[in-house]
Amino acid sequence: MAIMTTNTEDQQIITVNGANILSEIYEEEVIIVNLINGCYYSIQGAGVFMWKAIMAGATASMIVKEVQSQYAGNADGILDASYGFITQLQLELLAVKTSGQPGYQPQPAPASPLPFVKPALEKYTDMQDLFLLDPIHEVDATGWPKQASPAETE
Which of 71, 46, 62, 68 has its CA nearest to residue 103? Predict the structure, then answer.
């Protein structure tokens, strides 16, 4: 069940939650790594389209309207599934609400919309310890690997 938002909240931009969220988009799947908690995720179905909109910075209402124009299916079912998916991304801290202007540009509606496949977010924790041990997490403004200062080498 989707958490419905007020009109003001619905107009806030949904975007990726900072540099600690890495993603790679494939044709029918998105892989996301959360460097804070070490979990990784798989997005499938209409969620791939939605993640692209989130990466560009779109409001929740823009995303839902776009999904409804790109996919064929029950409008209320698409609405509930889309808002539910956005909420799920926020609960996993993969996406956040921000203010500002959306960067997302609406896509033209296809001549033949694809059948709607409910967006799915799968969470994996099996490599959590390895992701959290990765020394690249210890990076500061000087980058990685960090050169030892002359005082450290003496």
Answer: 62
Question: pLDDT (tens digit, 9 = 90+) per residue, 74-115?
Answer: 999 999 999 999 999 999 999 999 998 999 999 999 999 999
Q: Where are the domains of the chain?
A: 7-103+110-124
φ/ψ (deg, to 5) at 29 = -155, 150
- SS3 at position 150: helix
> Cα-atom radius of gyration of the chain, to the nearest Å?
18
CA dist 77 and 68 (Å) reads 10
The bridge status of strand 40-44 relative to strand 120-124 is: antiparallel
The whole-angstrom separation of Cα 100 and Cα 75 is 28
Residues 6+ apart with CB under 8 A from 64: 78, 79, 82, 83
